[in-house]
Specification:
The protein has 384 residues and is of the alpha+beta class. Helices cover 21% and strands 36% of the residues. It is built from eight helices and 19 strands. It is elongated, with a radius of gyration of 26 Å.
Length: 384
């Protein structure tokens, strides 16, 4: 499981977002149902608009694992900004940060792929298999807006603002199981897990603007039991496995507003597969570890005189140092001592052909740079 997948596996989540000011919808093709229309008709109309009109929203999603006593519960919450159109979606400002130390500034979902724009990286990283991306981020996710045929037992409820109507409904058991399963394991293996879940309650609430017919607030709250054998034939990370044998709740709140134009959700110009990106992370980590060992040799001996791969292994047995340039395949790091016998340069070529370099001055200042196969710069990745 990749670094990103492990980080995202812990980022499932309960939602409350500040309501945003209403804006007229662009391209409303049909008027709202006559008022007062039945809640089911109002929701079906609002759902149809949401699936065809560009929108932006602040979203919070969360899961709670309940223990044996009422006070024994743990909740994971994820909040993010989203904008969506029929061509895809864009995610930004994820809170709390679900990517560990990886500074992802934006996630674009289009054409069945995710493109992660990472600060300091020259290309967007492409991942086809982030398990929970569809249920957490996808346009029209049933975690936020269940399809109309998944709801029943509509009941109008009071709402204080004029021109707005609110109602609650029940989420059909099968649809609720599927939502919880996807939150836990993602879409590919959701069916195997969903059939084992027991749904205690599944409630939906929505607020509709009577003038435009659009949805302005939706909330989903599902209370379920995850049996001990829920993941018997599904590989899951420890954070997800911890839900087995526990009651859990999944909740969301979604406050969409219409956008005046289409958001930019196009494929970035320059991309790289997530596997290649993770390989470059490994290369950079090995360069830093090698720099620490060579620096320790220099500080111990007083200079780099007599530096050989065998002698450096005395300071770090795992280091595979070679003269010149190392490679990913050999998991080697190339080294060259500077003429002053105090500074040094380390180089390794990653699987994608990019060469990563780490230079150390005689005073220990480090600068990490990168060159693509065509000798073009791919940036500075370290200063220290």
């Amino acid at each position: 499981m990749t670094l990103l997948r492990r980080a995202w596996c812990t980022a499932v989540a309960s939602v409350v977002a500040a309501a945003l000011a209403a804006a007229p919808l662009k391209g409303e093709g049909s008027p709202p149902p006559p008022s007062p229309a039945p809640p089911a008709a109002q929701y079906a109309h609002g759902y149809g608009l949401l699936m065809t009109v560009p929108y932006a929203a602040v979203v919070r999603v969360g899961t709670t694992r309940h223990g044996a006593s009422p006070g024994d519960a743990s909740t994971d919450v994820l909040t993010f900004d989203t904008s969506a159109t029929t061509g895809g979606f864009s995610i930004s400002d994820l809170r709390p940060w679900p990517f560990g130390d990886v500074p992802v500034s934006r996630v674009i979902g289009t054409g069945g792929r995710l493109y992660l724009q990472i600060d300091g990286e020259p290309r967007s990283v492409v991942d086809d298999d982030l398990p929970r991306s569809a249920i957490l981020f996808g346009r029209g996710s049933p975690l936020f807006v269940p399809p109309p045929d998944a709801l029943g037992d509509y009941v109008p409820v009071p709402y204080p603002a004029a021109g707005r109507r609110a109602f609650r409904a029940t989420v059909e058991t099968g649809a609720a199981r599927r939502v919880v399963a996807e939150v836990l394991v993602g879409a590919k293996t959701a069916e195997r897990v969903a059939s084992r879940l027991a749904v205690r309650s599944a409630a939906f609430r929505a607020v509709v603007d009577e003038g435009t017919g659009r949805l302005v607030v939706t909330q989903v709250h599902i209370d379920a039991w995850v049996p001990p054998d829920a993941f018997a034939d599904v590989r899951v990370p420890k954070a997800v496995a911890a839900y087995a044998g526990h009651r859990m709740t999944v909740a969301s709140r979604f406050d969409p507003i219409a956008l005046p134009g289409e958001p930019d959700v196009g494929v970035p110009d320059r991309t790289m597969p997530v596997s290649d990106w993770i390989d470059t992370l490994d290369v950079r980590a090995r360069l830093v570890e090698a720099a620490a060992a060579v620096s320790l040799y220099r500080d111990t001996i007083g200079s780099l005189r007599g530096l050989t791969p065998r002698r450096v292994r005395g300071f770090d047995p795992s280091l595979r140092l070679v003269r010149g340039r190392g490679t990913t395949g050999g998991r080697t790091v190339g080294s060259v001592a500077h003429p002053d016998r105090h500074g040094f340069t380390l180089r390794t070529t990653a699987r994608n052909g990019w060469t990563y370099r780490l230079d150390s001055s005689r005073h220990g200042h480090l600068v990490g740079t990168c060159r693509m196969a065509a000798r073009r710069s791919c940036g500075v990745w370290l200063r220290g």
